[in-house]
Amino acid sequence: MRDELGPRDHAEAVAQFRAQIVGHLLSQDLAHGELKAELRRLAKIRRRPPGWSRTRTFGVSSLERWYYAYKKGGLEALRPRRRCDAGHARALTEAQRALLLDIRREHPSAAAELIVRTLEYDGRLQAGAVSASTVRRLFREEGMPRRSRQQKKHERGARQRWQAERAGLLWHADVCHGPTLELEGKRTPLRIHAILDDASRYIVALRVCSNEREVEMLELMTRALRRWGAPGTLYLDNGSTYTGDMLATACARLKVSLIHARPYDPQARGKMERFWRTMRQGCLDHLGRVTRLHDVQVRLLAWLDGHYHQAPHGGLMGRTPEIVWLERELQAIDEPTLAAALTAHGRRRVRQDGTLSVGGLDWETEQGFLAGRLVRIERNLVEPMAPPILVHEGRRYPLRLVDPVANGKRRRSFKPKPGIDAVEFDPNQVLLDSIFGRTPRSER
Length: 444
Hints:
Blueprint: H1 10-26, H2 34-43, H3 60-73, H4 94-106, H5 112-122, H6 132-141, H7 149-154, E1 170-183, E2 186-197, E3 203-209, H8 214-228, E4 233-236, H9 245-253, E5 257-260, H10 270-282, H11 293-306, H12 321-325, H13 335-341, E6 343-349, E7 355-358, E8 361-364, E9 374-380, E10 389-392, E11 395-398, E12 400-401, H14 404-409, H15 427-435
Parallel strand pairs: 1-4, 4-5
Antiparallel strand pairs: 1-2, 2-3, 6-9, 7-8, 8-12, 9-10, 10-11
Helix pairs in contact: 1-3, 5-6
């Protein structure tokens, strides 16, 4: 560390500035009247005081006062003197002081300018009677300075470094907004979904998409569960991607605790944010020319396996994420359990043409008697494109995608019209026979 000789505070810097202006006069043998002439000449020169962004001139009386003060007391005599009432708000009545302090207690983050302007518009302060600097001095005097939003966040309590007890116990999941790319002739936003293990910082799953929906998160989670098993806890933020009913239901069925961070508190999920920063610096900011989302996926996975998982991590005491991840403990999940946990249930009303909408697609059933009925639908989220199942009165009926062209070529079966041997029922003819006194057909 190199020590530098300079003013120890702003007051000494001002004293040095004043000494530079009038100091050379002390070494001159000035005759009667020459001092006044020299001071008038110096008063016309514009100078920039310490801490100022613009220049100004100084009056002859000020320069003369500096000259004699420097001559008598040296540099210390040129230091600006502090006012005896400095730091105290003046020109405020007791009623104004009480009003301003009450507003500060209720609105600790409001700026002094905003408070003064609001009170002037409201008629409770005369325009120009009280300045914002006076209000700020009052608040400092009473120990009530303005509190920023960041200070309010820190009031929740001191932060402490924390970590899961072992690998596999807690997973983070988040979405990173990447650059907008020109893919296949159109601008496509880049959204990177990832799941990170807390204790090892290992990325258990990563997927590149063009949007962020709950469906993409469920598919990524399914991929991680199939490969590794289920963690004890899933730690997410409060975005719409992570607060849906489907994700909450799936976690509950798999006995995975679902925890959401406090709103507007990104520091609580620092490990995930730090990974995004490392990924941007190491790979995302250097994608080059890519034409498909698959190209981005391949580059990110190569960076993960070839560098990130193999690099010593400061938070792991120099160990690599891959080494710590080998010590994981997760609960195994078989395919039937996973399918049952990720089966969504809903109710739909079958249209008159035997169709209904599920997952944004139109499906149809061959059971014509279900038209107009309210039925239950089961949909396996593990296989989003698998046909849903229609359940009615305990029976399960498969659905198929609607194909209007194929339906137009399909032969339809019609019920035959009643023949001669069919049961007769003709109320109009019976009424006419009764009016004209005819013999009923049953007796003919």
